[in-house]
Amino acid sequence: MKTGTIIAIIVCVLVACCLFTHRRVIRALVKHEPMPKAPKWHFWVRKENRRDA
Questions:
Q1: Which of 5, 12, 23, 25 holds its CA 20 to 30 A away from the CA of 35?
Q2: Do the beta carbons of residue 36 and residue 24 sit within 8 Å?
Q3: What's the whole-model pTM score?
């Protein structure tokens, strides 16, 4: 395989992982719903916007 093909595959896999990880946020944006709470470890988000669990 050529180097360009391998890089393209890696980029596609990384984009797919990002889309899967942020699927709830993307769904909320598309459906104009309220933004879901962020995970507890997102320290840069205000505490009232983070999940407790």
A1: 12
A2: yes
A3: 0.73
At 39, phi and psi to the nearest 5? -60, 160
The closest alpha carbon to 49, from 39, 32, 25, belongs to 39
Q: Is 52 exposed, middle or buried (0-12, 13-18, 19+ CB in 10 A)?
A: exposed
Query: How far is residue 32 from each of residues 25, 27, 52, measured CA to CA in Å?
Result: 10, 8, 24
Q: Give the rounded distance of the alpha carbon of 10 from its chain centre.
A: 17
CA distance 33 to 24: 10
Band (28; pLDDT cuts 50, 70, 90): very high
CA distance 34 to 25: 9
